[in-house]
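To: structure subgroup
Subject: Chain for Friday's discussion

All,

I'm putting the inputs and outputs inline so they're searchable in the archive.
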Amino acid sequence: MRYKPGHNAERRQALLQTSGRVVKQNGFAATGVDALTQAAGVTSGAFYTHFASKAELLKALIESESQASRQRWDGDPQLSDDEWIATTLARYLHPDHVHHPESGCVLPALTAEIARADQDTRQVFEDGLRQVTAALSQRLGSDERAWAFLSQVVGAVLIARALPNEASQRQVLQASQQFIRQALAAAG
């Protein structure tokens, strides 16, 4: 059977998207290749056509998710900085992001697992994260503010996800939004 040009690239991208959702929901270490291929509707042979190993998939996921995050952080260039901050905080520090890790940012979902990965994988993560913080830095005016902003929002989502009730989760999200706004206002 002949496939149209670009079929392999489309299949790889679909596998990355599906795998990204599954591992952000269930964790990378806890998700086997069989679960990933089943979710994507492909065979393990198709998986290994695109990725030499599960570790190679993690690197590809990090690259793909970093690019998507950078695009989201770039945001709407028409917005003023204050509007961008308000919109970004409302979107990121939202209960939907807490309750649906599969459709959210990779950072609160997989950073702890990436920290246990090999040096090459961690370097791919750092490279992608530096691109994300560069986009944030343009909006926030400095690398230091970008790192602090990113650390605060990711940490808030991570902590909120660990809490057992929605009222506590909302308290963490709201307190973080307020703190970030105040810190950015004080920084000028």
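Points worth raising on Friday:
The chain has one domain: 55-187.
The chain has a mean pLDDT of 91.

D.
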